[in-house]
């Protein structure tokens, strides 16, 4: 299938807009403004109108490729005071922190917006009209962010190297507005309203365009974000409960059994519950299941590592019923009694967490350095001639992280040891694990990423039930 690309180059090496990369809606408005400003507007015709309507109606959201950036030195400028009274000064201070564009090559593009096109015989015709529109682009961002644009059709995703890729994702870490069917007509109507905003009755301030679709994006090099719900552990009588660090897998088993029973009560499909909750997935889709994560208490020199809180985490890319399951479980599990398989009496109860600022940030907040709280279990043996091989261990760890959704390109350094990395946690060999994993190597691991990564970070065999769980030292 062909790709439509709109390539942007700025005349300067700095960008003053509020967001980077700029939203597809800003590109759409900038193209329209450039094509209708001054004498260029006289050349606007049916082909340009149809091309913009076609662009706003494309079914797939665009991927965005942007050159790396860094923040410039902040400074202040002075702008007209919009709330001016006769007794006030005419200027007001405005702080600015421009975005500096870190181009790999003077001729490399700064932005590429790329759509995967459906098969359509009119695509080439619309691309020609869009290229005429793009040639009249004046600025993208603020008025001083002068830019040029070109439009291309290509059979392949031929993105030049050195650009950061941002892709649409249902659980993306940031949102951007995008045009939708009807946006072009809405912008034209809002422009007319803006020109007529001043009347004898006063000024109409409500002339900003609003008809846009909100899309979620994530950086392609980052692990896909995962939704979660959280609970605290109590005794069946409602008192606080602390389970020893070594029993993380036991707590995870209680939690998994509770989720299974709760969703069976809702009458949901048993096969789906077996796959998504119990983890009886196919070989090619092993990671697509809920993860049940006991959270040892860490972060203080005197922390004992006891488990007082738990997370239930969706897999990367979860959607539809898989994502809705967390909403059902958040409601169903509040106050639920946790009972082991085959046991007659409950061992614990789940309760909402009153203070989310304790312990949870260590497991969820973005950070560059992450350390295991429970050890990673490798999927292969890391010895050679009876001794631990550093090369083999490093390779197995990187394979393990890749399988858990952590791209190799995101990792700056990996170190490992058998001793604990957090006060209150035990050595790798001390953790309880299922019988089928007893013979595999266990290691505590520290990962340093090139950029800050959000949690939770999981890796290794048993990562769906409390093993191979990382936390950030802050």
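^ structure tokens above, recovered residues below v
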């Amino acid at each position: 299938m062909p790709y439509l690309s709109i390539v942007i180059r700025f005349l300067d090496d700095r960008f003053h807009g509020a967001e980077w990369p700029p939203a597809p809606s800003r590109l759409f408005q900038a193209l329209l403004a450039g094509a209708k400003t001054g004498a260029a507007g006289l050349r606007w015709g049916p082909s340009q109108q149809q091309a913009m309507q076609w662009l706003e109606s494309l079914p797939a959201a665009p991927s965005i490729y942007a050159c790396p950036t860094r923040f410039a030195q902040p400074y202040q400028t002075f702008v007209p005071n919009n709330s001016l009274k006769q007794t006030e000064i005419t200027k007001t201070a405005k702080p600015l922190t421009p975005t500096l564009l870190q181009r790999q090559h003077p001729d490399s593009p700064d932005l590429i917006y790329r759509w995967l096109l459906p098969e359509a015989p009119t695509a080439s015709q619309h691309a020609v009209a869009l290229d005429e529109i793009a040639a009249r682009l004046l600025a993208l961002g603020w008025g001083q962010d002068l830019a040029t644009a070109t439009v291309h059709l290509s059979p392949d995703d031929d993105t030049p190297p050195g650009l950061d890729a941002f892709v649409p994702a249902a659980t993306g870490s940031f949102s951007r507005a995008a045009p939708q069917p009807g946006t072009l007509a809405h912008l034209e109507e809002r422009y007319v309203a803006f020109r007529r905003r001043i009347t004898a009755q006063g000024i109409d301030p409500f002339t900003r365009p609003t008809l846009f679709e909100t899309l979620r994006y994530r950086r392609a090099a980052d692990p896909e974000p995962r939704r979660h719900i959280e609970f605290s552990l109590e005794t069946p009588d409602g008192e606080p409960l602390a389970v020893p660090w070594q029993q993380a897998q036991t707590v995870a088993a209680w939690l998994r059994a509770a989720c299974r029973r709760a969703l069976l009560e809702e009458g949901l499909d048993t096969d789906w519950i077996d796959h998504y909750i119990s983890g009886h997935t196919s070989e090619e889709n092993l990671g697509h299941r809920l993860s049940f994560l006991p959270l040892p208490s860490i972060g203080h020199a005197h922390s004992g590592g006891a488990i007082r809180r738990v997370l239930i985490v969706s897999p990367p890319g979860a959607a539809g019923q898989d994502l809705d399951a967390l909403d059902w479980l958040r409601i169903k599990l509040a106050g639920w009694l946790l009972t082991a398989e085959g046991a007659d009496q409950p061992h614990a109860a789940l309760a909402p967490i009153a203070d989310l600022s304790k312990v949870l940030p260590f497991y969820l907040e973005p950070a560059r350095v992450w350390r295991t709280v429970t050890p990673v279990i490798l999927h292969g043996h890391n010895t050679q001639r009876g001794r631990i091989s550093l090369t083999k261990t490093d390779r197995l760890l990187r394979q393990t992280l890749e399988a858990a959704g952590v791209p190799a390109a995101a990792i700056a350094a990996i170190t490992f040891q058998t001793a604990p990395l957090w006060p209150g946690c035990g050595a790798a060999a001390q953790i309880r694990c299922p019988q089928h994993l007893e013979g595999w190597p266990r290691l505590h691991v520290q990962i340093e990423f090139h950029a800050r990564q959000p949690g939770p970070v999981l890796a290794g065999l048993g990562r769906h039930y409390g093993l191979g769980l990382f936390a950030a030292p802050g």
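The chain has two domains: 3-219, 228-471.
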